[in-house]
Request: fold
Amino acid sequence: MSFFGPLLDPATLPDPKQVATPLFILFVLIELTLVHRRRLKGDYETRDTLTSLIMGTGSVLGGVLLGGLGYLCLLGAYDMRLTTIQTTPLSLFLLFLLDDMRFYWGHRFSHRIRWFWADHVIHHSSQHYNLSTALRQPWLSGISGMFLLQTPLALIGFHPAALVFVGALNLVYQFWIHTEAVGRFPRWFEAVFNTPSHHRVHHARNAKYLDANYAGTLIVWDRLFGSFIPEDDAEPAEYGLVKNLGTFNPLRVATHEYVGILKDVAQRGLTIRQRLAYFLAPPGWSHDGSRMTSDELKRRDEERKKQNEKTTVRAAD
Amino acid sequence: MPLPVFIAVGLAACAVIAAYAHWLGRSARQTLSDTEDALRLFQAACPDLEARQARLAGDRHAALVMLENGDAGLLYAMGSKWMARDLPAGSIKAVKRLSANRLRLILADYTMPRLTIALADENERERWIEAMENAARPPERGPIERKATA
Reply:
């Protein structure tokens, strides 16, 4: 027993994802059935769903095969810790909050830095938005280096197994928000927690909604760091990528952005700075300005809307 | 649960859910009602390109769109959703005749490697090939490769 409650052995913490997997499958089947019977809003398509589920299964395998490097890094950081924070229910709760902010920034980097986007884009590659989309996860996260964002928490003194535990809990929370079946919750809940409404915005390809609502569990991080956009009933979300995929092949889905980066970097006549920018600049950046980043897409969308408003006013006059 | 068992159970679950979705009829592909529909959908997906004219595939699951800039564009049913692309010079690697009424496009695009277009009418097939040749052939490469399937 410690000041923070009963001591827990971090090595014996369960894997929340493994525990929740049978429920994920069950809820996908229930949502699919109810959507089909038109009892719930939503849309399912066989090949899209199959691709999402294969991506989810592959991500578990990828996590085991490639996740070791990240865990070793966390153990190394933990060996150099400033203090030791005992694993107790209260310290796990505190860690969950800190890790949720870590998730927010990691997620934000995943949308703003192309190298990380190459991993995360897989999760956004479906044109559908349902519970199976939640399971569409990348296979190569272990090589992205995103685990480096967890090292400060290990350096402070949280055990790496506890870090993995709360990270997985966060992902389990996010499963249920991938649905069109739920409208909005009471205002207090929408103000604090990430909800289906907030996350629909995050998955939308409409220019207005790009790069918003990065939260894992608590939407307060988006409100705090200026990336919150509420769902606008006048502009329903269209899901997927700015340039949608023309394949359901899981291997291509898993690797397409890495291939895109390699093709871009291998172009002739680029400077080292330009080659680096193809890794580190926001997705959509190009050395010759032939493509558009999300900021440019948003700007153009706003200009278009203003232009349309002017035209409408003139027509009314 | 040991990893091999987890993967096996996961793959079995994938198969069961996909079979169930198919059984419910969720595998049907989108269909275009007319050329106006094709132009509208293409324009919505590619607002920077000006679509001028569209030709529907025989099964209405795809449309060839002629653009203001002289290129061709393609609208293609990805299950119940649509995918649109412009086809600038060099974007088509080959056009294969799969059978009397189907064309296969081999594209230089990792995210859309090949597409099958149903075109029963011989004249229509020739028009598609011509439009794609004119719009997609890189001048330095010579004529587009046409392959007959054995």
In short: DSSP finds 13 helices and no strands in chain A. Chain A has one domain: 1-317. Chain A has a mean pLDDT of 95.
